[in-house]
Amino acid sequence: MFLAPSALARLIASELRADRAEVVEARRLPGGAVREHWLVVAEICGGACAGRHRLVLRSDGQTPLGFGLDLVQEFALLRTVHGAGIPAPEPLLCCGDAAIIGKPFHLTRWVAGEADAERIVAAGPNDALAAQLGRALAAVHAIRPPRLDLSFLGAPPVDPAMALLAEYRRRLDAIGEKRPVAEWGLRWLARNLPAPAAPVLCHGDFRTGNYLVADGALAAILDWEFAGWGDPDSDLGWFCSRCWRFSELEREAGGIASRTALYGGYETEAGRRLDPRRLRFWEVMAALKWLVVALLQRDRFLKQGERSLDLALTGRRAAECEFELLRLTAGEPETRE
Amino acid sequence: MIDDPPSAAELLALVRAAWERDFASLPAEQRQQQAALIVRCLAIGERTLRSAGSAAVIEHGLAQHFGMTAPEQRLERLAAAIRAGAYDRPGPAREGILRLLWAITLRKLALSNPAFTVGIGEGRG
To answer: What residues of A are in contact with residue B106 (Cβ under 8 Å)?
Structure first.
């Protein structure tokens, strides 16, 4: 990506109805396996937004993952969730013109806080944060179809679990490797499908590492590119998946707290009791989903030539997902080998 | 081959390229992240070298169930049998296949991330 500060400054001034703007700093931020992030500090003169602003520019990575929302759709989704009072970055402008930075991007207002999962987990158990996350997630799930402003999400699935299972099977078949443990997981899921849930807006990647924490409290939920209509329990299963507890496996809610804290916050806001059997199904589905994503990420290195250590190593994480598939569906191994 | 790609050799080649290309010129924070990834790649390479030959037990188990075909074909047959429901019912066949699936998975993790299995198989829930 190239960043043309003057072109970006003109766009900011135009979109935010300012007299003029100047980009005084632009710095690539670490992290982001699928998308790139830049901190942009803009000095805006005139208009309602006059002053110095810290913004986040978000654009596609070097090679796309092949699914999820595009940047324009993600921007529209952010408008909806931010407008609903859900803690998310405030969307400011979206640009599909490749002349500015070489590819489409959007700008949101900077939110201060820590997003690094290892550091969040290392800060110690935090039941209050988990309860806050539960309440925020329930607020996301309160957004239900039909919604004209979210028409780009397509028709909600009649049976979200069955639809996802079919999609992951198709993607695994397309990847073309014979993975017996993945087949074992697919088989278990097909034989244990829950009754269809009424679709709601799901974040799709709700986990530690995709939210900001400031002073121990939730500041914003990030990374909405996998949002869509689905089963609300899918987000909870993903959050509690062992793969997203980092170094704190005993803290089953995202490495930060007990499940009780997360579920309590969620149930209070959502006004419904969670069913442990459904949550277990979605935790197995989470392991399968992460397996598919890990293989797709790896193939950006193996098949698309993106020379990234991170992507290459993500392929080696597939075994962690398969471990989870076995542990959740067949108990633990009798002996370690 | 039961081990996942990319191979240890591919990872080590990637490390060398990353080192030669731009490591020294990276900003401090990115250099720290890149160094952590390099250490992981080197560790996988080292564990792979040390474990040479240990996959033979698993290959033998697969051969017992699926004959003396090429290793890829054995995995293909196993995957197809699971998809067809051949091991849905409780019993010795299912238990045998489960042991094989665990062995394959633990072998992969022993190379890529041994810490992931800490505590498992030691009576924890």
So the answer is: 323, 333, 336-337
Interatomic CA distance for residues B82 and A182, integer angstroms:
10
Cβ separation A319–B29 shorter than 8 A: no
What six digits make up the tokens of A213? Answer: 């924490």
DSSP structural state of residue B115: G
Has residue B1 been placed in a domain?
A: no
Q: According to the model, what pLDDT value does residue A33 have? A: 66
Encoding tokens for residue A115?
């997003």
Question: Do B33 and B62 share a domain, yes or no?
Answer: no
Q: How confident is the model at residue A253 (pLDDT cuts 50, 70, 90)?
A: very high
Tokens of A53: 């602003």
In chain A, the residue whose alpha carbon lies closest to the alpha carbon of B71 is: A178
From B67, B82, B92, B21, select the one nearest A322 (Cα to Cα).
Answer: B82
Q: Is B62 on the interface with A (CB under 8 A)?
A: no
CA–CA min distance B37, chain A (Å) = 6
Is the predicted pLDDT of residue A297 greater than 70, yes or no? yes
Q: Is B26 an 8 Å CB contact of chain A?
A: no
| Candidates B15, B33, B102; nearest CB to A333 | B102
Q: What is the pTM of this model?
A: 0.90
B11-52 confidence digits (pLDDT tens): 999 999 988 887 888 888 788 889 999 999 999 999 998 887
Domains and CATH numbers, chain A: 5-109 (3.30.200.20), 117-329 (3.90.1200.10)
DSSP letter string over B14-33? HHHHHHHHTGGGS-HHHHHH
How many domains is chain B built from?
Answer: 2
In chain A, residues with a C-beta closer than 8 Å to the C-beta of B90 are none
Mean pLDDT in residue range B66-83: 88
Q: Using CA atoms, how far apart are residues B12 and A309, in angstroms rounded to an integer?
A: 10
